[in-house]
Amino acid sequence: MKNTYKAHLALLGANLIYGANHIIAKGVMPSKIGPSAFVFLRILGASLLFWTIKSFIKEKVDKKDFPLLILCGLLGVATNQLLFFHGLSLTSPIDASIIITAVPVMVLIFSAFLLKEKITQNKLIGIIIGAIGAVLLIWYGNKTEGTSSVLGNTYVLINAGSYALYMVLVKPLMKKYNPVTIISWAFLFGFIFMFPFGIQDVLTTNFEAFTLNTYLTVAFVILGTTFLAYLLNIYALSKVSPSISGSYIYLQPVISFIMVGFYALVFSNQKYSQDINLIKIISCLLVVAGVYMISKSPKKKLV
After folding, report:
1. How confident is the model over 263-280, as pLDDT tens digits?
2. Which residues contact 228 (CB under 8 A, 6 or more apart)?
3. pTM of the model
4. Which residue of 38, 50, 156, 279 is 20 to 30 Å from 44, comparing CA positions?
5. Which candidate, 159, 27, 15, places its Cα nearest to that of 87?
6. Measured between alpha carbons, how far is 173 from 181 in angstroms, rounded to an integer?
């Protein structure tokens, strides 16, 4: 396809942002701002930006599609972001980035049940290998030093499942409407669902204690992780297949490993230095190997 290199650059940029977000966002949680308040600001800020763009797109949504849009807002915005930020505030950035790579595996499973897509032998093997890696990491999170947490890892895993289900449910809408229209409505409904969970935290947040670094982090999450990354993914999806787009998610653990390693060495942070170990490297390799098996061209269908 012509000009697909631009789509690959967009995917690279989006996943560099996502990978960096794991350690950047965690740096201010919960010392400066709670995860629910952070998500409140993130969804509110991104919603205003998306609806600003949406004002230039004159497209109406059929009433029959609103229930699905509402569900997408619940799963893909409110539940997804609340669980991820709560999980990230409790666990290691590396753990979170590895668990997130289970999204394509979960997409495959949900697609098989909801869209009746066939599961090949390679894909079944990939699901098993990837699941072993994810379970190993979550189990190990309760038995190690550093910033790992079994509860935090569990939150991130449920978040991955919520986002994967959203990706499957949103497919029919993507074929019918402009992606900006879908995201704008999804964020609006997501904000409504998230409001009762985040408003109290926002009201009790001590904004006077914010430093320049805190404001820059919040700005990065709103403008970079949410608004810009979503736009880059939208552009890429118009040029390449979802499977190619999804494969870029495996850059995130690598980026997180590099950033945590840099943070530990340059700033002599012993807490983060304990987050890199053999078990986590093995877990990461298992998840990546599982996804590789899933992404291989189907040769034999499992009856």
Report:
1. 666 666 565 556 667 777
2. 13, 14, 17
3. 0.79
4. 156
5. 159
6. 10
